[in-house]
Structures are given as structure tokens and as C-alpha cells.
Write a sequence for this structure.
């Protein structure tokens, strides 16, 4: 199968497939004319890559365990749980940071509108204008 067919079958752009190849996640054979050809099993591999990207993993992280999960169930890949735990810790740090930013913004809104209550009326008009668009 050629790269366009793989892209269509997986919903991944040709550009992304070329990137996956550069990163060593997938491999293609080359025909005499230079065209890439892929084994039909590559569909499953690309879909697996998409799944792990949707969990927030980088292609580098995926490369560290992709071979194992393609050959075995996840539960038989010893490196997967530490990687999951690391990603979860990153997400928890991001949530904490975003919660702090949210609290700071709410504090600023309260401080500004306490000092100038007219801004609450302006804010209502702006909010309604945005909703009507």
C-alpha cells in the first residue's frame, strides 16, 4: 500500500506519516521509482501511535515502548507503567498550575470590579455580544 492509501485508511496526514517514519515509529519499503510502500499491518501500528498520541505521549516516548505493545499486550510490557505514571504526574502538575492561574484570575476580576463596579455592566454587554455572534 502506498502512503496515500495508508493516510486514508488511518486518518493520518501524509506529512504525519513521513514524520513518524523520520522518528523511527514506522518503516516503509521503497519501490524502484522511490515511492514508499507499506505493509497492510502498518494500519494497526499507525492507529496504535494515534492512540498513544491522544494520551499525550510524545513520539519519543512512544518509540520507547511501541515495539513491545505491538508484539504483546500492554500488561506484558514492563516499561509502560512507569511511563504512564510519569505522564500522569505531568498532567497533575499542569492541573495544579492551571488551578492556580484560574484562582489568580478570579482574584484579579474581583479586585478590579470591587474598585470599579461599572466594569461588571460592561462585562455583561461584551459577554452578550460574543454570545450573539
Amino acid at each position: 500500500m502506498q502512503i496515500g492509501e495508508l493516510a486514508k485508511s488511518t486518518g493520518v496526514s501524509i506529512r504525519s506519516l513521513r514524520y513518524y517514519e523520520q522518528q523511527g515509529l514506522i518503516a516503509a519499503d521503497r519501490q524502484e521509482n522511490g515511492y514508499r510502500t507499506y505493509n497492510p499491518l502498518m494500519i494497526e501500528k499507525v492507529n496504535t501511535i494515534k492512540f498513544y498520541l491522544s494520551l499525550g505521549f510524545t513520539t519519543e516516548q512512544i518509540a520507547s515502548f511501541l515495539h513491545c505493545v505491538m508484539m504483546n499486550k500492554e500488561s506484558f510490557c514492563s516499561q509502560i507503567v512507569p511511563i504512564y505514571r510519569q505522564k500522569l504526574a505531568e498532567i497533575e502538575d499542569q492541573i495544579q498550575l492551571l488551578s492556580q492561574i484560574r484562582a489568580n484570575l478570579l482574584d484579579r476580576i474581583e479586585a478590579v470590579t470591587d474598585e470599579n463596579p461599572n466594569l461588571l455592566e460592561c462585562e455583561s454587554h461584551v459577554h452578550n455580544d460574543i454570545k450573539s455572534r
